[in-house]
Design a protein that fits this description.
single chain, 489 residues, alpha/beta, four-stranded parallel sheet, 15 helices, 17 strands, elongated
């Protein structure tokens, strides 16, 4: 079966064929680093991480570019608002945190969140401030082509002329007449209220460090321009996939498409957008208090559980969070881990907490899993295939059919790896250093041996006491025809 994805621009699922055989260029929008990451940011990153992993599983090389917007109106506003009274110095004020320091601090917070949730680093992660030259070149091309103009006042702004480009609105299928005015720059110098800023002239209220020289005067780039310039530099004038959250379709991605194609570039062959995260069916809003942050999720559940929850829905659908969501995800992860632990013990003699080496590169996912992932990255159906394989593996273990169980184990490990649950096997074998794991296994095995002796002597009270003591310590004992096995709760 061919790989098929939904293309937002064409509003249909269509066959995916890389522009360059064997190689995929993917650009997806990263963070505007004005604050801590929210759940929408990490859901988007996980969705595109799963996409990359699947394309690689299909034998394709994927060049991933995820930008960092480190200069923006909101970053400057947050910086300006960050000064605080110094009450130890007669009411004077501490200087505001420099905008670039603020941006870098939050950039690191995003990197930590991505790393914690198993989102692999992109091939390259460019910052907007490092690509001013490329932005000037793109603006010049647009002016020369008649699709951009310097402001008619002395602001130093440069705008994209939406009326000059008949295809404007193609991504979201809107008419210019139905669009709202672009709010990203002073409207006095615009020909049309909907024209959007490519370059923003420096204002006296802005820090001097937040401006760069240009042919149109000192200033800084417009948000939309940044992504077009960086995508073109690292992936070429035409590339395979542009992705991001559904909320970015307009105006951000619409404007990216317009300015890049108006300059003569082919730009993205596919546009892929992930859905939003809601709270019990409603849009999350700080004002009504129905938000949850990634940090709060990670305080409530292990990272693998949080990743499972954020990645379990179809990427294009809405993902609804409710108070029981993480518990449900934890139960699903535990079913997977319990099978992996039991299979490793029975088949490969790996004690809970012990090290093991299995060659994941030679493991294959099930046909049902592959068909689901090829069909517009249908993760819910892929998870159904994963859990069905877990059930088949458990049944085989119970029946002593170890070859069947081993095949299921290999398939489960391949599927969890493809979904980014790479540490599922290690997590199932429990955490801790190898020395700690070995010591724990030795102690528990001694207790289990004593329990075997007690049962052989029909000392049922002593056998039950040992089991209860282990249970109180968080150790689950399972009796089987092959002997007792243990795992941590």
């Amino acid at each position: 079966m061919s790989i098929r994805f939904y293309d937002t621009q064409q509003a249909q699922v269509r066959d995916f064929v890389p522009l360059t055989p064997g190689r995929v260029g993917l650009y997806y929008c990263g963070a505007t680093v004005q604050g801590m990451p929210h759940v929408g940011h990490v859901r988007s990153a996980i969705a595109f991480d799963i996409l990359v992993r699947w394309l690689e599983h299909r034998g394709l090389r994927v060049d991933v570019v995820r930008n960092v917007t480190d200069i923006d109106d909101k970053i400057l506003e947050k910086s300006a608002a960050s000064f605080t009274p110094d009450f130890e110095d007669d009411g004077t004020y501490q200087p505001a945190e420099d905008w670039f320091a603020l941006a870098y601090r939050f950039e690191q917070a995003f990197a930590d969140a991505y790393d914690t949730l198993g989102v692999r680093r992109p091939t390259y992660e460019p910052r907007a401030t490092g690509h001013i030259t490329e932005m000037h070149e793109l603006i010049t091309r647009l002016i020369d082509a008649g699709h951009a103009y310097p402001a008619t006042d002395d602001s130093g702004d440069v705008y994209f002329d939406v009326r000059s480009y008949p295809a404007y609105g193609a991504l979201t299928r809107q008419r210019v007449e139905d669009m709202q005015a672009a709010p990203d720059a002073d409207p006095r110098g615009k020909r049309d209220p909907r024209d959007f800023a490519l370059w923003k002239g420096h204002k006296d209220t802005d820090p001097a460090t937040a401006s760069w020289p240009s042919p149109w005067g000192r200033g800084r780039p417009g948000w939309h321009l940044e992504c077009s310039a960086m995508a073109g530099k690292y992936l070429g004038t035409s590339f395979d996939i542009h992705g991001g959250g559904l909320d970015l379709r307009f105006p951000h991605h619409e404007n990216e498409l317009a300015q890049s194609t108006a300059a003569g570039d082919g730009f993205a062959n596919f546009w892929m957008h992930n859905g939003m995260v809601t709270f019990e069916g409603e849009k999350m809003s700080k004002s009504i208090g129905n938000t949850i942050s990634p940090a709060e999720m990670l305080d409530a559940a292990p990272a693998r559980v949080v990743r499972y929850f954020l990645g379990q829905a179809h990427y294009r659908s809405q993902l609804d969070y409710k108070p029981s969501s993480l518990q449900e995800a934890a139960a699903a992860v535990e079913r997977i881990d319990t099978f992996i632990t039991n299979a490793l013990q029975r088949i490969h003699a790996v004690a809970p907490g012990g090290d093991f080496e299995l060659d994941l590169d030679h493991f294959e996912v099930t046909d049902d899993f592959a068909a689901a992932m090829d069909d517009d990255l249908n993760v819910p159906q892929a998870l159904a295939a994963l859990h069905e394989t877990v059930r088949r593996g458990n049944k085989a273990l119970a029946a002593g059919e170890l070859e069947v169980a081993d095949q299921a184990l290999q398939q489960v490990l391949a599927m969890t790896s493809t979904l980014g649950l790479d540490d599922a096997a290690a997590g199932a074998a429990q955490s801790g250093s190898p020395a700690q794991q070995e010591a724990l296994d030795t102690l528990v095995r001694a207790q289990l041996d004593e329990r075997v002796q007690a049962r052989a002597a029909r000392d049922w009270a002593r056998a039950d006491q040992i089991r209860d003591t282990l249970a109180a310590a968080g150790i689950v004992v399972e009796d089987s025809a092959g002997g007792a096995r243990w795992s941590l709760k």
